[in-house]
């Protein structure tokens, strides 16, 4: 691998693995050295990413496998379903793939989540490698082993914790990302500052123009530092019994926005960005951060090209959707709140206070 490639270790005992971060890794056959030996690989991708990167990945995998199969799914969150999962199993079974077959997830978080879940299920578990091609997937979804598909009643409700063998982030793929998707990924980058590292938040503020301009050095540092923080959290709490929940800063309000508007109207990262503004306001009402912190975070999220005012769905609609969030316990809503900046806690808050925050943060 190119010596400028950065490596971050996810420390999980026998399930530990490396995240490689660098430009051009998709073309680098050495990026796949040391994976479990197998005769066959299967690349799972989608119809948008395949024309951009599939041939290049096939070429660099060729020296390692006798055969490289492909399953290209339709693009979109609405295809994160049983049907798509079955299409992957159809290829695996149709091609008589054995239990050593290595799955490669080439795409954003949708492809990563569904491929990981397919790998967890096929023959009770086969190895898989994440090759994330969106910023959101490189800094969040490809790392940590959460895999899932959606159910019509709820997003990501059917899934498993199942760690990849390796994550390979080719920073070059971020150059073709639509601007709206880049901004959505920046929401998850910004998230790591308030919950864990205010020096990183300072750095993001200083480099937001570079990140929006897709400066390779800025992207490389943003992905690496985000992965380091995620590795630190996941290494302590693989299955979200405690601290891992802080990675959901902004996600409780964000979930209500996504569900209230209908999934897909706002991107996940857009809802998280606005949700972080709301969670910061709630933290301020509880006396844990000051107005200057809320303003600072709001300005940064806006600069990233993300909405900072929520849709006016009404406080009751927000509360309803937040009650079915995965973090809710016995119907009680739990929020990731900042206390103090650089550190997060998971707490309940009075409905009336939450409703005030929603009303204050929504467009009339
Ligand atoms: P996505 O996978 O839908 O990708 C966004 C869009 O970008 C898609 O249209 C995709 O085809 C396209 N695309 C991908 N790479 C591209 C590239 N290099 N150039 C051009 N276009 C490209 O969305 P996402 O934001 O990557 O991921 C969102 C998903 O991730 C959601 O399903 C969410 O639930 C999940 N998620 C999972 C975790 C986790 O821990 N497992 C964490 C956060 C989000
Ligand atoms: N994206 C939140 C987590 O991985 O826990």
State the major sheet: 7 strands, mixed
Principal-axes geometry comes out as: globular
Low-confidence stretches: none
CATH classification, class level of the largest domain? Alpha Beta
Number of DSSP helical runs: 12
In the CATH hierarchy, the third-tier topology of the largest domain is known as Rossmann fold
Order of helices and strands: EEEHEHEHEHEEEHHHHHHHEEH
Give the tally of structural domains.
Answer: 2
Helix content, binned percent: 40-55%
Instruction: Specify Rg, calculated over alpha carbons.
Output: 20 Å
Total count of strands:
11
Separation, N- and C-terminal Cα atoms: 53 Å
Provide the spatial order of strands within the biggest beta sheet: 1-2-9-6-5-3-4
Textual characterization of the structure:
The protein is of the alpha/beta class and 364 residues long. The chain folds into two domains: 6-176, Rossmann fold (3-Layer(aba) Sandwich); 202-363, Dehydroquinate synthase-like, alpha domain (Up-down Bundle). The protein contains twelve helices and eleven strands. It has helices spanning 50-61, 82-94, 109-121, 135-141, 179-196, 198-212, 216-236, 251-261, 268-285, 291-303, 315-323, 351-361, and strands at 6-10, 17-22, 40-46, 67-73, 102-107, 128-132, 146-151, 154-161, 166-170, 334-338, 344-348. The protein has a seven-stranded mixed sheet, sandwiched between helices. The chain has a two-stranded antiparallel ribbon with strand order 7-8. It has a two-stranded antiparallel sheet with strand order 10-11. Helix 1 links the parallel strand 3 and strand 4. Helix 6 runs antiparallel to helix 7 (216-236). The N and C termini lie far apart (53 Å). The model has no long low-confidence stretch (mean pLDDT 96). Bound molecules: nicotinamide-adenine-dinucleotide (NAD) and glycine. Glycine is lined by residues 140, 144, 146, 244, 247-248. Glycine binds at residues 140, 144, 146, 244, 247-248.
């Amino acid at each position: 691998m190119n010596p400028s490639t950065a490596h971050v270790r996810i420390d999980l005992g026998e399930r530990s693995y490396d995240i490689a971060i660098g430009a051009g890794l998709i073309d680098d056959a050495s990026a796949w050295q040391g994976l479990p030996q197998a005769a066959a690989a299967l690349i799972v991708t989608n119809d948008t990413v395949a024309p951009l990167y599939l041939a290049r990945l096939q070429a660099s995998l060729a020296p390692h496998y006798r055969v490289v199969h492909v399953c290209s799914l339709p693009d979109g969150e609405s295809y994160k379903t049983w049907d798509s999962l079955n299409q992957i199993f159809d290829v695996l079974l149709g091609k008589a793939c054995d239990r050593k077959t290595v799955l490669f997830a080439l795409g954003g978080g949708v492809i990563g989540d569904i491929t990981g879940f397919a790998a967890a299920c096929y023959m009770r578990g086969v190895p898989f490698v994440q090759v994330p091609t969106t910023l959101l997937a490189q800094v969040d979804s490809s790392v940590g082993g959460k895999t899932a598909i959606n159910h019509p009643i709820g997003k990501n409700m059917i899934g498993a914790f199942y760690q990849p063998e390796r994550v390979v982030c080719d920073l070059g793929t971020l150059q073709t990302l639509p601007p709206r998707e880049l901004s959505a990924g920046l929401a998850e980058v910004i998230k790591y500052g308030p919950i864990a590292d205010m020096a990183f938040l300072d750095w993001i503020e200083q480099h937001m123009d570079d990140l929006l301009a897709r400066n390779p050095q800025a992207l490389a540092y943003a992905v690496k530092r985000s992965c380091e923080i995620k590795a630190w959290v996941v290494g302590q709490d693989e299955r979200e019994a405690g601290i891992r929940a802080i990675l959901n800063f902004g996600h409780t309000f964000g979930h209500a926005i996504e569900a209230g508007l209908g999934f897909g109207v706002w991107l996940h990262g857009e809802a998280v960005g606005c949700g972080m503004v709301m969670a910061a306001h709630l933290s301020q009402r509880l006396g844990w951060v000051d107005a200057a912190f809320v303003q600072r975070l709001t300005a940064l999220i806006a600069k990233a090209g993300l909405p900072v005012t929520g849709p006016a769905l009404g406080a009751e609609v927000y509360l309803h959707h937040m009650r079915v969030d995965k973090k809710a316990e016995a119907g009680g809503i739990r929020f990731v709140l900042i206390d103090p900046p650089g550190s997060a806690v998971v707490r309940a808050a009075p409905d009336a206070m939450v409703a005030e925050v929603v009303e204050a943060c929504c467009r009339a």
